Amino acid sequence: MKLRTLALLTFSAALAVPPLAAAQGGFDSTKLFFGAGISQNDASGIDDEGTGFQIFGGYEFGQLARNVSLDAEVGYMDSGDMKACDTFFGIRQCAEGDAKGLWATGVGRLALNPQFDLIGRLGFDFGDDDGLMFGIGGGFNVNKQTQLRLELVERDEISSLQFNFVYRP
């Protein structure tokens, strides 16, 4: 199975979870959450980093084991403009570009205590940097509705250091 096909199936499955849960009487709208943040992005072969953003939504599936929870997240990211320069026959030439696109991941959270979570993610990027993506980080629970996250997310070509705000209504 090609990676692109697998990624499309994963994304479709992530979008299908809430309607399927609702059909089985298990969908709970209080488990939905939303987030947004800024990121510092670096790509291989790029001289200049880009400052970008991401927005996302998710669903909490609940605890798998003591202090271990599983979520699904779907979002959009823009890496911001990055500059690549190269010297060709003694002439330095530069070009700017960015990467954008949708992504879907499963997110595991390990609650260390009521204030801190360790976070791990694995999924697919469907945009300009399509392919496998994974990340690690931590979350600080300001209160029951608000979490601040710091994560390092790796995609096929782009590495992102992200600071996100998560809101659970």
From TrEMBL:
Residues 1-23 form the signal peptide. Residues 8-152 form the Outer membrane protein beta-barrel domain. Pfam families: OMP_b-brl. InterPro entries: Beta-barrel_OMP, OMP/PagP_B-barrel. Keywords: Signal. It comes from the Bacteria. This is Outer membrane protein beta-barrel domain-containing protein. It comes from Sulfurifustis variabilis.
